[in-house]
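Many groups now describe folds with learned vocabularies. In that spirit, our science desk offers one protein's residues alongside their backbone shape tokens.
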Amino acid sequence: MSLRSERTVAAAAIVLAVVLLAAWGRQARQPAAKQIIPTLTNRPELCLTCHDGIEEISASHPVAAFGCTTCHGGDGLALDADLAHTGMYGGRNPADLAVADVACGGAKCHSGDPAAGRDHIQRVNTSIQATYAGAIAQVRHTFGAQPDLTARMGVHAVQSDRPPSAEAVASLAAFVAHPTDPPPLQQFAANCLTCHLAAQPIAAPYFYRATGCAACHVLYDTDGLYRGGDPSISRTEPGHASAHRLTTAIPYSQCDHCHNRGNYNLPRMAFIARTDLPAPADADAPARRLAEYYQPIGQFTRCEWELDCVDCHTAQEAMGDGHIYSNQADAQDTQCLTCHGTLSEPPKLATITDPNDIALRQAQVNGKYALQVGDQVVVTERGEKLGHVRWSGDHLALTMKATGQTYRVPLVQGTACEQKPDEQASRYCHACHDHELPAP
């Protein structure tokens, strides 16, 4: 063999050795495959090979039963990240309304029988939070694009499957501003459609949240940083949920990601963010609670700044009841009298008699309050049971859904309240019961 041939062979051997060494190094760094076989699919998945340590999404969605791909899609057998994540529903958010019917609605989990309360996706898609129909109708009417305040358009087209109602419309067309529309209407379309469940949030502290179902049910910290146990998720990149968890124990701070971040400048049709909020690192809980509660100059009843939003705003108010309403007032069911009653009547109560009552399932999923057959609970004008507001021996007690803290609910009956029989809406209660917020 010539010297040149020997050098060629030696070089080839070195190259081969380098390739084999690199391959061995990659293999050595590759985590051992971790397989699960979810009972609902009976198909093996390897997702936890990389996501080992991630939080179970909720007790009602156990990974042993659901696995990962039932909700997320993707290729559960691929160990390459790009291949594994190909075909995932909604990217990293299967609860986005564009895919929720496939991800959350699979196997009729959340798109099933309305009578059993399993039609969450249809109800959410018709809700004011998803359609933004009230704001669109108000602006279109103000600038002459429609003759009255009845909703005709939403951020997406949607049709109700509910029986006709005097307070609701049957369907909405998709709102699109046209070049011939008045300039304010075009500016509204360009600048003011970030306040609905399908809209991407502003990427800034206090604004971080997900879309769709996860906008409410997946909690985000103010700084948008992940604090869970999945080693594959960055701890320094903002824009992540604080943990891989679904919850109905929703604190006011989650609602505030959308509802307390500034005001709209109506002449300019532009959103003006608040500048008075503290830096995330400086926001201790008590001071933040007082600083954040809607408008700093506002006046509110005590329950409005001590309770969480979900303690008064019910599931069918926030998520919708299947009807398409023209404004938030028509969608709202709970008033002060719902829990406090009136001078002449106590609050309406209903007894839990059916072991399959939706209220029992809601209590079990929430985990912060207890409910059982035989309990008496407050019921709204539209018949929705408030399982966390329960008759307790000789008084009415409210248990906060986010913290489990319990309050005794004062009743109007038997007091010196001066309310008039024809003035029972909550705005009349505010005339006497408003208080300035204490200083932070």
In short: Residues 121-311 form one domain.
